[in-house]
Amino acid sequence: MITKARFLMPSAWLRPMTLLGMLAVFQACTTTTIDEFRQGATGISSEDSVVILGRTPVSPNDADPSQFVECVGERMASGDNAINVIPEQQFVDAMFPWFEPRMAPKRNEDLQLMMAQPMVTDIMSGLGVRYIVWLDGQTERTNEMGQLSCGLGTGGGGCVGFVTWEDDSSFEARVWDISSATEVGTISADAVGQTYIPAIVIPIPLIARVEANACSSLADQLKQFVQGD
């Protein structure tokens, strides 16, 4: 006589194991692309400094790049081959009113006119500014799909469902050389990632850190760029 045994898995184990299986399939990942366009030779000494400025939003709907500016500055000022970075607000205050939103130079010609003023060059020289980096860009969310429902009952609460979306961080850095009052290059960073939030009782966010990846990649490339060959 042959007896077949059937093992039943406790229901309390099913949900965690199902969730672990989903986590193994859905993993947040990010792809970052860096493009560099060089227009002039660069180099920097230990006495020189870099200023990173964000383009002021034109309308309330535009993204505020201040956090990204701070992130890039901190990354450039730390680690191997760290560079002196003057905080954005410190520079704007010292250069008042020339870098206020309505007066800040937008083109090479504007920078050259500004640098023709002795007071401006004296302040720049006192701060040790060699390069000004203008940052512009934003992070957009697209392709959002799925649904997540949460509730609370007599037996407790929880969530169920699945949500996913795509984040795209696209930023551009224009580098101005103060010594020649010209633009010497442009570096762009584009990071794309898919975020997943599966939920069986508890939501488990698998977040694609696109803006953080764009920040670190752009900052590292800027380091190499201003240091030159």
Question: Topology of this structure?
Answer:
Blueprint: H1 11-25, E1 29-38, E2 49-54, H2 66-76, E3 84-86, H3 88-94, H4 108-115, H5 118-127, E4 129-153, E5 156-177, E6 182-203, H6 210-227
Parallel strand pairs: 2-3, 2-4
Antiparallel strand pairs: 1-6, 4-5, 5-6
Helix pairs in contact: 2-6
Task: Fill in the keyword field for this structure.
disordered N terminus; 6-stranded mixed β-sheet; 6 strands; elongated; Double Stranded RNA Binding Domain; 229 residues; alpha/beta
Query: Radius of gyration, Cα only, in angstroms?
Result: 25 Å
CATH C-level label: Alpha Beta
Amount of helix: 25-40%
CATH architecture: 2-Layer Sandwich
Strand order of the largest sheet: 1-6-5-4-2-3
Q: How many E strands? A: 6
Low-confidence stretches: 1-25
CATH topology: Double Stranded RNA Binding Domain
**What is the averaged pLDDT score?**
83
- Total domain units: 1
Based on Cα principal axes, name the global outline: elongated
Question: What's the quick description here?
Answer:
With 229 residues, this protein is of the alpha/beta class. It is built from 6 helices and 6 strands; from the N terminus they run H-E-E-H-E-H-H-H-E-E-E-H. It has a single domain, classed as Double Stranded RNA Binding Domain.
Protein model, in words:
With about 230 residues, the protein is an alpha/beta fold. The chain has a single domain, classed as Double Stranded RNA Binding Domain. Helix content is about 30%, strand content about 40%. The chain is built from 6 helices and 6 strands; from the N terminus they run αββαβαααβββα. It has helices at about 10-25, 65-75, 90-95, 110-115, 120-125, 210-225, and strands spanning about 30-40, 50-55, 85, 130-155, 155-175, 180-205. The protein is elongated. Mean pLDDT is about 85; it is low at about 1-25.
